[in-house]
Amino acid sequence: MKQRPQIYYTQEQKNLMWYRWQAGDSMCEIAKLFDRGHSSVQNILAETAGVRPRRRSRSPRSLSLSEREDI
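-> structure tokens emitted (71 positions)
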């Protein structure tokens, strides 16, 4: 069996995976969208134990770029 090249999912593709997962689709159904096996989707979802990670945001107490440059 020939091994497929590794795929790096974009943030847009990962968002689609999370949306479909929360809608109740199985990993196999999600993987079919990307023509991959369920294990490639499983790795993305397993990183955070199946819970969608929160959007990253900088703390309001942190310094801005210009303030860091001054220091």
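The chain has one domain: 1-51.
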